[in-house]
Amino acid sequence: MYATAPATVAKTVTKTVSGSIAQVDRWGELQLTLVVKKTTVGKKVTRRITAVKVPLFPNHTNRSIFINQQALPILEQEVLKAQLSTNIYMISGATDTSYAFVQSLQAAIVAAKKT
Amino acid sequence: MPVYVEHAMGMPIVIEVRDGDAAEAVERVFDWFRFVDEMFSTYKDGSEISRLARDELALDDAQADVRDVLARCEELHGETDGYFDARAGGLLDPSGLVKGWSVDRAAAILDESGLRGYAVNAGGDIRVRGRWRVGIQHPTVRDRIAAVVEARDLAIATSGAYARGDHVLDPHSDGAPRGILSVTVVGPDLATADAYATAAFAMGGERGPRWTARLRGYDAMSILSDGRVLSTPGFPA
């Protein structure tokens, strides 16, 4: 008989977890959502936060005052993705540096619309 | 959908109009851009900016538009803790504001002509009327985008260091910003959005994103060198 090592298959599950809605003094409500990627290899479980979202945040006219007073900037976090530019009409890119790209892309879009 | 492209102010300017024939209004806009170039170009010896820089022209004698732009540059210098600097490197160069400012005026010309669906793209800085899907250029993969902004009556400006190498310098250290690849700022006014994007990018990956979270009426997305994308909650992507 051959001793075969059990195949280690990594199992990955991505879950979105929402925090409770919190009242931030008189400024409004705040809620955070985390996207967690859970990888299981054998008995080893690794959890990694891949995105932080803020679906609810104080957003009335005093929002900036709230942020300034809290000295706690709210930022959402994601992982950089490279997407195809289908159904895009305009591209915003770094000033002065990407003319050739913007030009060629826009020329391509113009051409694509004519086909 | 008609697309108009012309080279002005040293960059291609693309105008797309959904309202049908807008040739006359668009021609007025391109005339405006050529006029701005004559007034503000640092490459033209006879421009008011060049004459101001050589002390041949007193600020009080400059055209109202020139005085307005320089005053706004001073304001933004203060608002950005000196990170937006029209005198970086010791020379007067308000180009960083002029582009956005001239596109804002161009939008006003198109509005006055009754147009309600258009986009003006000046070298990657954009102002749209109506709903448009605007791609944000991926900082390292040239033919891809990093995000899509669902824009409606909005200005979108991106500052970054890709393509031709480092372009924006941190005026406080004269070095290239660290830890950051690009910053996109959206809001009502392109001149302001562009200045904020330039400043946040110059601040680098630590300070820049935090600073954008405090902006009033403007939202931002920062792409960091480690692949993280940090956005303010109101960023429409």
Major beta sheet summary of chain B: 8 strands, antiparallel
User: Would you list the SSEs of chain A in sequence order as H and E?
Assistant: EEEEHEEH
Average residue pLDDT of chain B: 90
Shape of chain B: globular
User: Main sheet of chain A, how many strands, which sense, barrel?
Assistant: 4 strands, antiparallel
Rg estimate of chain B, integer Å = 17 Å
How many strands appear in the DSSP assignment of chain B? 8
Q: Give the CA-CA distance, first to last residue of chain A.
A: 64 Å
Rg of chain A is: 23 Å
Backbone structural class of chain B: alpha+beta
For the largest interface, the chains and their residue counts are: A-B, 40 and 66 residues
Number of helices of chain B: 5
Helix content of chain B: 25-40%
Overview of this protein structure:
The complex is a heterodimer of chains A (115) and B (237). By secondary structure, chain A is α+β, with helices and mostly antiparallel strands. Chain A is 21% helix and 40% strand. Chain A has 2 helices and 6 strands. In chain A, strand 3 (28-41) and strand 4 form a beta hairpin. The longest helix of chain A is centred in the C-terminal third of the chain and has 16 residues, at 99-114. Chain B has an 8-stranded antiparallel beta sheet with strand order 1-2-3-4-5-6-7-8. By secondary structure, chain B is an alpha+beta fold. The two termini of chain B are 24 Å apart. The mean pLDDT of chain B is 90. Chains A and B meet through helix 1, strand 5, strand 6 and helix 2 of A and strand 2, strand 4, strand 5, helix 5 and strand 8 of B. Strand 5 of chain A pairs antiparallel with strand 8 (228-231) of chain B.
